[in-house]
Specification:
By secondary structure, this protein is mainly β. The protein is about 10% helix and about 25% strand.
Amino acid sequence: MRLVCNLQVGNRLLPTLNLTGRKKSNKTQLSLGRNPGSDSKDGELYIMVCTSKNLNGTKYKVRGNVEQVFTKFMDQGKATVRVKEPAHDLIVSQADVIQLKSFLHALKLGLQNKDIGQVKLSTLRPASSAQVEKQKTRLVVTSRRDYPLTTSFPYSLESLKISTCTLRKVDGRISSLKHLTVLDLSENQLRDLPDDLAKLQHLAELHLQNNVVEKFPASLCIAYSRSLRLLDMNNNMLSCLPPQFCELTELVNLKLDNNQLASLPKNFGNLINLS
């Protein structure tokens, strides 16, 4: 059972000495399993933490040593595992939600001494450099040849540009990239924007220039009302904007040249931050 995530290790004793208790967050492979050669049922369970600086890993005994597991923000890919010895908090973030739930479920079974024979545990071995490489935050695709048809978009992406790829439809996988702040789909052949893009609740920049978009969905206006600061829709086919467009009050940069707009929404003056 392995989980790739960002991890901070918090030392609960250091604050008592007026020292910083947390190390910087790093790309990490967490493994839940037993030592090589140990009994498949009765061998001691460990959590092993491997990073690029420590490929051999640090092991934390599970039974009798894990004090508490905090899961309040599990649906955001976050959790904290508190261990007694050493007095560390393993603070997980940017984990795949499904994989995180599976990992914590297996950990819970191990803590309760229940049968985890059907759970695929790991044999604890050093990680490879590729397994703990730094998470990719930016991706640029400017040709159909480079488009990721058979591989997933990196979950950690914060900026994604897919331009000059003759896209006629927005890839549904994009809406699952919860960390995106910049999305550039310019220079394609997009006509519609799916409501699923509303899931990108941290989006600050949306570049859609040089497409054939006919309308801007009200759902996106509501979803981006507190985050969107730049919207470029030059050279599209917009004929009108929904009333909800005036809820994009954080907009600083708005480009609507060369569309088919005959008028603007009644409360367009609410966009007081436009430069």
